Amino acid sequence: MLSNGSIDARGARFMALLDIDPGQPEFSPPGEVSLVQISSLHFGPPYCHPTTSGQGLALIRSHHIGATSPRDDPQHYLQCVLDLFQHYKQLSAQHPSYPLVVNTAGWIQGKGLELLFDLIQQLDLTDVIYTSTAGPSEVVDAITQATEGRSTRLHLIPSQPVEAHPRDATELRMMQTLSYFHLDEPEMGHLRWDATPIQEMATERIHYAGPEQSIYAVQLLGPELDPEFLIQVLEGCVVGLVVVENHAALNFDPLPPLPRTSEQIPYIPSSAQTTAPLSPFHSYSLGQGLIHSIDTISHTFHLVTPIPHSIFASLCTQQSKLVLVRGSLDTPAWAYKEDLYKQMYRRKQIVKEGIADEGTRKWTREDTKNWADGRPWMHADGRRNGERPKRVRRDLK
């Protein structure tokens, strides 16, 4: 609403959105923070435009957080925000009337409130809008203190009554991620979607070893993990596709040769039992990919991603370093079962319309088990009527 108002009411040709809510971003999949240039009005929920490929949008820079909240690594989150803000300042120096709207994260308790306090003081804002006049008092006091003695105006406006949403935050993130991975090539600036199940989509094949190596390394955020389990951890998960601009992003000085697993997958080693994220001042995010499979014979990752092939081709030409970053994003369980639902629907239509032979019957749990055999990531374990396939692998947090 504020971004639309900046273009409409102020008459600006374009404005910038610093979208730093990794749980509910406006123009990207969950797990990203970004700086976006907007030159036209946009309406609808985020899952209707989970990318900047649409008309009137341009991605200036983005960073992969690897989580839906800054809670796991507030310091890295703050660095990402400050890097994006520096890029905005460079643009605003060329266009003095370039307005900026900041969409902050909803985590404003405890450490989250301290983080918000730091952001207000470091981003040099002209106005801060808090959509509540009823508190909590500690939040209002902290925001008031952060704006005192500065040229920042604080606005407390009543929150608007809304009807209870039928979807919770987890389901909305799932819908936005699903929408992102089903994006097709835009047509005349308008977004399109591909209804093909994820398991049937053509994949981007990227080498991680050999003369055609394009993936520089894999990085697992969080606690240290035995690298020999990398394949089990990576297959079927969502990863950030991060481009390293120079070696300073890797937090090693000097840069050692990267170790490899027995399958020759290169990985960034941990330090002090944890892996530090890539420095956002020397790297940026292309977007996200879902690892369909890993071919250890041809040394390739098979990725499902809406990022155009031309982007990956240009990275090879420029010899840029691409890192696959595995964080703690929600497991894409919806992707595992799309083909199942498609086949169940087809069977239902066949039985309903009577276009098959007399032996055609309704879908059963045995059919589900047969379907799951040989499918990546899946097995079926029916314990009661109506139960569906379960995930084989736990999600690493």
Structure, described:
The protein has a six-stranded mixed beta sheet, with no helix packed on it. A four-stranded mixed beta sheet has the order 3-2-1-4, with helices on both faces. Strands 5-6 form a two-stranded parallel ribbon. It is built from nine helices and 18 strands. The chain is 27% helix and 23% strand. The two termini are 34 Å apart.
Summarize the structure.
With 397 residues, the chain is α+β, with helices and mostly antiparallel strands. The protein is 27% helix and 23% strand.
List the helices and strands and how they pair.
Blueprint (H helix, E strand, L loop, with lengths): L1 H7 L6 E5 L12 E7 L18 E8 L9 H21 L5 E4 L7 H12 L4 E4 L6 H11 L5 E4 L12 H13 L1 E5 L2 E4 L10 E4 L7 E6 L1 E2 L6 H5 L3 E7 L29 E2 L7 E13 L4 E5 L4 H10 L2 E6 L6 H21 L11 H8 L5 E2 L10 E2 L6
